Amino acid sequence: MEDMKDLVLNYVINEYQEDEDDEITYDTPLISSGFVDSFSMVSLKVFLEKKFNISIPDEEATPEAFDSVNKIVDLVNGYLEKK
Amino acid sequence: MSNIGSYDERIKNFDWSISEKELDYKKGDIINIGWYCSDRICEQGKSGKIALYHEGFTGEERKYTFNDIRLAGNTIGTFLRNLGIKEQDRVCLFMDKIPELYLSFLGVLKIGAIVQPLFSAFGDESLYVRLENAGTRAIITQKKHAGKVRKIIDKLPGLEFIIIVDHNVAKPLQEREISFNLAREKPVEHMEIFPTRADSPSVLHYTSGTTGQPKGVRHVHYSLISQYLTTKWILDLRDDDIYWCTADPGWVTGTSYGIIGPWSLGITQCVLDKGFSAESWYKFIEKYRITMWYSAPTAIRSLMKAGDELVKKYDLSSLRHLASVGEPLNAEAVIWSEKVFGLPFLDTYWQTETGCMMISNYPGMKVKPGSMGKPFPGIKGVVLDPNTHKPIEDPGRVGLIAFKPGWPSMMTTYWNNEEKYREKFSNGWYLAGDRASLDSEGYFWFVGRDDDVINTGGHLVSPFEVESALIEHEAVAESAVVSKPDELNMEVVKAFITLKPGYEASDDLELSIMNFIRKKLSPLAMPQEIEYVDSLPKTRSGKIMRRILHAKEWGEDIGDTSTLEDD
Question: Is residue B398 one of the residues assigned to a domain?
C-alpha cells in the first residue's frame, strides 16, 4: 500500500509540481487546488492504467476521485480488488 | 428593467457615442484603459468600494478597494518605468490568477506599454514562440513559472527583465531576474499616466490558426468603448452587483470582461484561483453573494455532471444573471440552468480578434436555447455565401459568419503579420472563421469552425503547432492532429502518428508523448488520445489530409478523395 502511495506521489511530484517550495503530500488537493488541471488528468489516468494494469472508465475518472494521492489509491485499489 | 431595456429599440439609431458620452470621452482625447479602470472610478467617489475579492488555492483571501488598485497600478507602472520600460514596449504577464496579474495589467497600461497576457499553463515552447514574435522586453511572472523562462532566455536576447513577484529570498536570482514584491513596495500616490490616444496599442493577445505560428492580435485603448457598453448591456452589470468572470486573463475573455469591462464600470468582482470543482464553485458563489456570473460551456457541463442535488446544498439565491462564452452553449445546458438556478445562461459569441461580444442573447430578449442570439446594436453581422462572400438572405442556409469592420475593439493588426491580417477581410467583411445559419427571426445558429483549429474547452489549439511539436519527440516520424468529439470540452485533441524505425507502439510511449506535449506546449494541446498508424492519408503532392481523419472521428462523409495518393 505504502509503495503504491509513494509511487503515485512521486509521479505527481515529478510530473506536475511546478514550484519546488510547494509541499505535496498524500492528502494535498490536486485538482481542486490547481496542481493538476483537468486536461492533464488524462495523462495521470493513463499512467495509473498502465502502471497497475487496470482500466478506469471515463465516468469514474472525475476531478473528485483524482483530488488527492489517497483518493487515487482508493480508486485504484477498488479496481485491483475487482480483478 | 435591464440596462439594455428593449433590444429592438436599442438597434434603432444606435451610435457608439452613447458609450463615449458615458465615459466622458471626446474624439482626440487621451484615453488610457488603466486610468479608466482605477483613477476615474476613484474620482467618481468610489475609492473605498471593493474592486476585487480574491481567493487563492490555499483558501487565502485578499481584497482590494478601487483606491488600492489605483495605487498598485501606479506602483507597478512606476517600477517598470524606472527600469526603462517605455510606451509600446511589450510586457508579458505570465502568472496564475493571482492579484498581481490583474494589478500589473493596469500598471503596464498606465505607462503606455503594451500588455501581453499569456496563459500560465503554457510550456516553454509555447512561451518562446509568443515572446519571440512580440519582441517582448519584460516578463512579470511567479517563481513557479520562472523555470520555463530560464529554459528559453538564451534564445531571447531582447527579453531584458524577468520580474518575479514572489521570489524566495533564500534562493539566488538568476540572469536578468529581478525580485518585485508589491506588498513590500511603498505605494506610489501620484504618477504621470502616459497620454495614450484612441489608436495607441493596449493589449496583445495570441491566438492560434490552422497554419503557421500563433498570431498576436493587437488591440488599442479605444477598445474600451465597446468593452464598456457590452459589459453594461449584455452582462447587465449595475453598481451593487458582485461579479464573477471565471475566465483566465491569459485569454481575451479574462481581460476584456475579467478586468476592463467590470472595472471601467466601477463594479466589484471576485476571482477564485484554484482548480475546478463543483463544490468549490458553488461555495464561492454562496460566500461572496455573487449576482452576475460569466462562465463557459465546459464548466457548465461539468456542473451538470455533478448533479442537481449538489446545487440544493448551497444558497445561490444571490444570482440574478448568467452568461456564457468560449464555445457554443448547447440547448440542454440552457434548459438545465433554468431548472436548477431559475435562470438561463445567455450565450455570447465573440473572438480574440473582435475584442468584444458581437452576437449575444440579451436580458429581456426571448431566448432560443442553443442559439447564439443576435448582433449587438451597432454591429452589422451576417452569414456569407462561402463562394461569393455575399450575405445569405434565406433562413437555414449555412454560410460564414462575418461582420462589417469598424466597431471600436476590432483588432488593428496581427503583430508582424499584416498579410494574415488582410486575409481576414473579403468583399468589405471581416471573416470570423466560423460557420452558422440565420433563422427567420434573425437569430444566429452556430454550425462549426471553417478551418482545422480545435476549440477545446473554449480555447483554440492549432493542429499545426501540436504536429510540429510532436515530430520533435524522438519516436515520432509523422503526425496529424485533429479534433475529436468530447462530452465536456466539445472537442479535444487527437493525434495520429507514425513511428520511427526501432520504436514500437506501447502505453509507455503514449504517456511519454502526452507528457512531452503537455510540458512543451500546454495541457490544452496535449493529445487526449493517440492512435498509432502505419501511414497518414496524403495528397499526391505529399500534404497530409487532416480532413479525412477529422471526418472519421466525427462520423462524417469523407468527401472527395480524388487527390489522395495511392497506397
Answer: yes
Q: How far apart, in whole angstroms, are the C-alpha atoms of residue B384 and residue B398?
A: 8
Q: What is the pLDDT of residue B314?
A: 98
Stronger pLDDT, B211 or B348, i.e. the higher one: B348
Residue B538: CB atoms within 10 Å: 16
List the end-to-end C-alpha distance of chain B, in Å, as a whole number. 66
Structural domain for A44, as ranges:
2-82
Q: How many beta-carbon pairs under 8 angstroms link A with B? A: 72
Q: How many domains does chain A have?
A: 1
Regions in chain A scoring below 70 on pLDDT = 1-2
| B352 CB-side CA count, 13 A | 25
Taken in order B413, B417, B423, B427, the sign of the CA dihedral is positive
Q: What is the CATH number of the domain that holds B535?
A: 3.30.300.30
Are the CB atoms for B257 and B293 separated by under 8 Å?
Answer: no
Question: Is B475 in contact with B448 (CB distance < 8 Å)?
Answer: no
Query: pLDDT by residue (tens digit) across B11-54?
Result: 998 999 999 999 999 999 999 999 999 999 999 999 999 999 99
Please count the structural domains in chain B. Answer: 2
Mean pLDDT over B518-542 rounds to: 92
The three three-digit cell numbers of residue B46, written as one number: 468610489
> Contact B497/B513 with Cβ under 8 angstroms?
yes
> From the centroid of its chain, how far is CA B209?
14
Domain that holds residue B521: 454-554
Looking at residue B473, its pLDDT comes to 97
Enumerate chain B positions whose Cβ falls within 8 A of a Cβ in A: 57-58, 96, 121, 142-145, 147, 168, 273-277, 279-280, 302, 456-457, 507-508, 510-511, 514-515, 518, 523-524, 526, 528
- Any idea what the CATH number is for the domain that residue B297 is in? 3.40.50.12780
